[in-house]
Specification:
Layout lengths: L1 E6 L4 E5 L2 H15 L8 H10 L5 H12 L4 H12 L9 H10 L8 H12 L6 H12 L3 H10 L1 H4 L1 H15 L10 H21 L6 H4 L5 H11 L1 H9 L6 H17 L11 H14 L5 H15 L9 H20 L1 H6 L6 H23 L3 H23 L13
Antiparallel strand pairs: 1-2
Helix pairs in contact: 1-16, 3-5, 3-11, 6-15, 7-13, 7-14, 7-18, 10-11, 13-14, 13-15, 17-18, 18-20
């Protein structure tokens, strides 16, 4: 149901009634954490909508340079500057120099100790943290249909869903590992490589004659990028809490600080980057009012993600069909718990009461274990180590499933 019209930067923007999303995670967050009145003023909505026409000028200029060079040459220069430093590139093009001058000018607010503490807090969730990543962050992200248009247009998540989802999980593990966001470390490099991938995709979509700017906004725009950032940070924290994980206030702040820096490296405008939990919830509310408008493409992507979960069946022989069905039921139940029944119904996610009972039971058990952890000296450090081992083993398993290219060269032109 459409409730109001707000003037955007290029045309009037018809805003939906955001109750679909508000009755899910945002309403729960407001009830549990007393985040106050998150409703935005019309002027704030208009300002946000202006970012829907904005790309990433430094990265976009770099991609234009790469596209103008012989095949592979521009990407090789980027990799050399990324891994060896811009000073190692003889007669570096101006666009490359400007890009790295920008990303190496670390903002004053970045605190390396907080980056590591935030990564440790995420690490101790172990493999449990992978469930909200897929079942809330990615599945919930499909409700933002304008952002989903790029995924549908490239076919990445509908036709090569397993490989792309594995790459996303691997990237997430890279940037959330303690120490990985130091200059030149794996997370730092992965963030900048994906930033360049986004610029390549943006350029490719702009070359398409069928891209509907009026309906879909600028491809891979600033609003969509900060939305993805919040799905991986604040929404991830909410999702793990709903599954029984307990964080201190400092841990939540440090996780947000880590993702604020990741977002900055990935080219998100500082005017959009949340500095506090209150900022993050307000931004999510703004996004709920303007971006979470699901359509048929949302359902297609949700179906592809569920099929990926069911893909485990082939590894279990005669029991494959049973295991695959159970996997889909489990992930659907988690999604229903995390994004709400109304959203899940819209995405056509299966509803199986038994699976929902199992998920609630697991969440309750996790909460009890987490309560004990908070009270036992040394238990948090031990859990961080256990989580790190589990994540490392999981990353190795992912690497065996597909031939991962952590330079993302296959996703870049030039």
């Amino acid at each position: 149901m459409v409730t109001e019209v707000v003037a955007g930067s290029g045309s009037d923007v018809r805003l939906p009634d955001p109750e679909l999303f508000r009755q899910g995670p945002l309403r729960l967050a407001k009830a549990l954490w007393s985040t106050g009145d998150l409703r935005a003023e019309p002027a704030q909505l208009r300002r946000l909508r202006g970012y829907a026409e904005a790309g990433d000028p430094p990265a976009d200029a770099l991609v234009r340079m790469i596209d103008a060079m012989p095949h592979g040459r521009g990407h090789a220069l980027f990799e050399q500057a990324l891994t060896q430093g811009i000073a190692s590139v003889h007669d570096a093009p101006d666009e490359l120099v400007a890009f790295f001058a920008d990303v190496e000018a670390t903002p004053y607010w970045v605190d390396p100790a907080r980056l590591d503490r935030g990564a440790r807090a995420i690490t101790r969730t172990g493999l449990l943290g992978m469930f909200p990543l897929a079942d809330m962050s990615l599945m919930g992200g499909y409700l933002a249909s304008r952002a989903a248009k790029t995924l549908v247009a490239t076919g990445d998540l509908e036709y090569t869903a397993p490989k792309r989802l594995i790459e996303t999980a691997t990237w997430w593990l890279d940037v959330t590992t303690p120490g990985a966001m130091r200059h030149g470390a794996i997370g730092y490099c992965s963030a900048l490589r994906v930033r360049l991938v986004h610029a390549h995709v943006r350029a490719a979509m702009q070359r398409r004659k069928d891209w509907d700017y009026e309906a879909w906004d600028h491809p891979v725009n600033q609003v969509q990028t900060v939305g993805t950032l919040l799905l991986f940070s604040q929404v991830f924290v909410l999702g793990t809490q709903m599954l029984g994980i307990r964080y201190s206030k400092r841990e939540r702040d440090d996780i947000l600080h880590l993702w604020r820096y990741i977002g900055w490296l990935m080219g998100v405008d500082e005017g959009l980057l949340p500095a506090t939990e209150e900022d993050a919830w307000r931004m999510l509310w703004l996004l709920a009012a303007t971006e979470f408008i699901p359509d048929d493409d949302s359902k297609r992507l949700a179906s592809a993600l569920l099929e990926t979960h069911g893909g485990v069946a082939e590894r279990f022989g005669a029991l494959g069909e049973l295991v695959g069905g159970a996997s889909i039921a489990l992930h659907s139940a988690i999604s229903r718990m995390l994004i709400g029944d109304r959203n899940a119904d819209y995405l056509d996610l299966p509803k199986q009461p038994l699976a929902q009972v199992v998920v609630l039971g697991l969440a309750s058990a996790n909460f009890v274990v987490e309560t004990v952890r908070k009270r036992v000296p040394g238990a948090t450090l031990l859990q961080e180590k256990v989580g790190a081992i589990a994540r490392t083993q999981y990353a190795r398993q992912l690497g065996r499933l597909v031939d991962l290219d952590q330079s993302y060269a296959s996703h870049m032109a030039g």
